[in-house]
Design a protein that fits this description.
2 helices; mainly beta; Cathepsin D, subunit A, domain 1
Length: about 120
Amino acid sequence: MVSVDGRQCWTLFDTGARNTYVVPSVAEVLQTSQTPRTIRTALGGAVKETHTAALLEAEIQGHPISTHALVIDEIGLDEKGIPIEILFGALAMQQWGIRPVPDEERLDLSHYPQEFLEF
């Protein structure tokens, strides 16, 4: 789960997806903007289109994150048939030092940045 504006959202951390996606019910509480062109992405065996981007401000296991997300109508279902509300992609995981540990069904946040060093 990822906490967005105090709401727990069912999240898939997917290293096979480059970008991060949210569904409209999550985007309702986020700052969104219209994109200048249609963005198409292949996700879950189908091509999805969007004209909306969002700034995902959330909390993961007590750690605040902020990342760019695309708003799509539906991400899909997990293996138990639960609708996925956020698909957290590889770029955001790299940015925030998040490593999935699939065998243990947990996240490793030991590389979460305490500060950013820019050159």
